[in-house]
Write a structure and sequence with these properties.
Blueprint lengths: L1 E4 L3 E5 L2 E5 L1 H11 L4 E8 L2 H12 L2 E2 L3 E4 L16 H7 L17 H9 L6 E4 L5 H14 L2 E6 L14 E4 L8 H14 L4 H11 L3 H5 L1
Parallel strand pairs: 1-4, 1-7, 4-5, 4-6, 7-8, 8-9
Antiparallel strand pairs: 2-3
Helix pairs in contact: 1-6, 4-5, 6-7
Length: 219
């Protein structure tokens, strides 16, 4: 089983709310490849969250360790505005009332992550799918050691590798933006290959090839 850590958000896809954010995309990519995946994080208890959870379930992603918080509003990415007048563009770019201005999930909380991981004790790969503070990294690294699982960590652009990781931990540096989810899908494919028992080098080659980058990588 693969455990993906990160709070999902909503995004508009074909006029409906779907699961968005890096954690959702990583989890959905791994599940699409036939792996058992559980998502650990926190979301609100509102219509956006309901739509997100339904979309995750349709994609084969489990959410037994996804905490629901009635005091939190689930962020919703704004649908890109196309061919709008200037006044309409200003209105369309505004976030709905009460939601995160950037359309991104709030930072992970170490206590939330620790609680979620206690529900899931049998996993081979754990992916911290979004940059997180040192307390969260420490909780995830300890869980990976305890479960003897492979740790995949995503850090922000330009960040140094956190201290205290397992010796076989793998670190990806996230791009500044990933609007089409290409990077997140690559991480999900990579985690899936690790779950199949591949060594990191082979898993990376397989995930890059699956995204159609093999020719560019060989150039």
């Amino acid at each position: 089983m693969i455990v993906v850590i990160g709070s999902p958000i909503g995004r508009i896809a074909d006029g409906a709310i779907a699961a968005g954010g890096p954690a959702s995309r990583v989890a959905l990519a791994a599940a699409a490849a036939g792996h058992v995946v559980q998502l650990v994080g926190r979301t609100g208890e509102d219509p956006t969250a309901e739509a997100v959870v339904l979309d995750l379930a349709r994609g084969g992603v489990g959410h037994v360790a996804l905490l629901r918080d009635a005091s939190r509003v689930t962020p919703l990415e704004a649908e890109p505005a196309i061919d709008l007048e200037a006044d309409d563009l200003d209105d369309a770019s505004a976030s709905p009332a009460g939601e995160d201005e950037a359309g991104s999930a709030p930072p992970l909380d170490a206590a939330d992550v620790d609680l979620g991981l206690r529900y899931l004790t049998d996993f081979a790969v754990v992916v911290l799918a979004e940059p997180a503070g040192p307390d969260v990294v420490r909780v995830v690294a300890d869980a990976a050691r305890w479960a003897e699982a492979r740790l995949v960590l995503v850090v922000a652009t330009g960040s140094s590798v956190p201290d205290g990781l397992p010796a076989d931990g793998i670190v990806f540096e996230a791009p500044d933006t990933d609007p089409d989810g290409v990077f997140a899908t690559l991480v999900g494919d990579f985690a899936g290959a690790l779950d199949d028992g591949a060594e990191p080098e082979d898993a990376f080659r397989a995930s890059v090839a699956s995204e159609g980058w093999s020719e560019a990588a060989e150039a």
